[in-house]
């Protein structure tokens, strides 16, 4: 009897009514020529497929998307923004669409963008309404484009409409739903700037965001995500930011924030409903986030929120760019909503010291508004901490969905206690090269667009700046360069190739690997780690190499010091596969990357074209030299011009 019951339960609907919303139409928003981009249609497909094959969607009420009505969107966005998003996909915008997108921060647009934006917003409204009415206990809207960066009059950060903010205003405005207080939990790795601004003065909405901040150096790279941003007027105290000082935060860090900030405040606030801006880019394996929350971690975070608002919770997808990580994280969350497994276990790892510092600062800042935050945290608790440069448990390099991640995440809900962060066997060779090389500094000497610091930072933090047609995935280690200095070297700068993926038409900068006394080149030197240098090499050569071992290791370093330059076999098709040693600066080796001597022969013979840089690209070089304080604008312009016109 009992066996029969268990069996039937596992195939039938849950006792909990859980909604799940997926609609293929949201996949029609993609890059204009389907160029690779982290925010791509496969994200929601991967999640949906995973939930189907795990038998989750079968236990849920499956809903399909509805377009949001303008009147609801206008509660968050301005009329001009709504007009733009409504019309951007129409034919009459065909010629202007790309230009409009390139003037926005981290946005692409195509013929499917308008519809997807309306569906994403409408879907979150739809599930929120059903949960509010009690037709569903909870729900997950698998939507894209994401929303939390979108502001009143601005699309940014892959977001067009602020889906969660729109649904929140909808709930508050439909008075008969009886939803008067809403808690928004934004656990996407980026700060939810758009949502924060929407409810800045509104005490009906408690906005809580935990995000990588790095003192304003992590996207969106300003002070809006600081813990001092607590809201204003009647909304003062109803905006809580928990800004990580560093990457690599994991379950222990997030759970500490839940236990010592969010959960006590949620108790005191007593929301009628909870909306989660559920980005999964803080997940272990994410190429942009650099954090390490496991599916088990997400399950715990969600489980702890189910005790409020009578379990009325809506999750709306935001970011999350590793298909395996986001699928497993979403699955773990769905299992919590369905409430068919108990999530137990404790984490063996400790929070970073910086995590306790941030928790303390947040509590201090907000204790006047939330009495539950007033007590000092016991020293005994705070002294249980991990040092910041800990061994990494994750590997994934940039755009490749590393296989080891797949393996690492297979267990889906696996308590950290079985993960054994330090000696786990799965921690393959690829991890240890990273931690080894992350302790060694080199000067990376740049002569091209990387002389302009914001452009170089794309290789470290990920991102895309003016003029770039391709997004960078960044380094695994997103710490900025420790020092920057400029030097002149006796090498020749020149421009070759017809076009590049990053800059479009026009040649790109190369350095003649051999030095001649009468040549001079201005170089900007960044002090970074050898691990970061490897990630730069990988990105400069647009390689599909999996990075399970380094492109350039300590042996290569010895070798290049002795021989002056070495060619990297693994990226021999890349244009910058030749690492050149330029001497030492304060006991630290100076390295650059360029073409090799056989390429020089091909440039000279005309087999491969020499080609002047495009105006955009040349301007970037000039900006680098001018902002770096090396040359005046006229000097920089003529320096670039000479390099572009003088024969090799
Ligand atoms: C929704 C989200 C990230 C934007 C990063 C831009 N956006 N470099 O995760
Ligand atoms: Zn994000």
Quick tags:
648 residues, alpha/beta, 8-stranded parallel β-sheet, 6-stranded mixed β-sheet, 18 strands, binds N-(4-aminobutyl)acetamide, binds zinc ion, Histone deacetylase 5 isoform X3
Please report the number of helical segments.
22
First and last CA, distance: 86 Å
Computed Rg: 26 Å
**Main sheet record:** 8 strands, parallel
Structure commentary:
The protein is of the alpha/beta class and about 650 residues long. It has 22 helices and 18 strands. The strands form four sheets. An eight-stranded parallel β-sheet has the order 2-1-3-8-7-4-5-6, sandwiched between helices. The radius of gyration is 26 Å and the shape is globular. The N terminus is likely disordered. The protein binds N-(4-aminobutyl)acetamide and zinc ion. The site of N-(4-aminobutyl)acetamide has 15 residues, from loops. This is Histone deacetylase 5 isoform X3. Keywords: Chromatin regulator, Repressor. It holds the Pfam family Hist_deacetyl. Its cofactor is Zn(2+). InterPro entries: HDACs, His_deacetylse_dom, His_deacetylse_dom_sf, Ureohydrolase_dom_sf.
Secondary-structure topology with pairs:
Elements: H1 2-11, E1 18-21, H2 42-53, E2 61-63, H3 70-73, H4 79-87, H5 97-102, H6 113-133, E3 138-141, H7 163-173, E4 182-186, H8 193-198, E5 205-212, E6 239-244, H9 251-269, E7 273-278, H10 295-305, E8 313-317, H11 323-338, H12 353-366, H13 379-382, H14 403-409, H15 416-419, H16 429-437, E9 441-446, H17 453-461, E10 484-489, E11 491-496, E12 499-500, E13 504-505, E14 508-515, E15 521-529, H18 530-540, H19 554-563, E16 565-567, E17 578-585, E18 588-594, H20 597-605, H21 615-627, H22 633-645
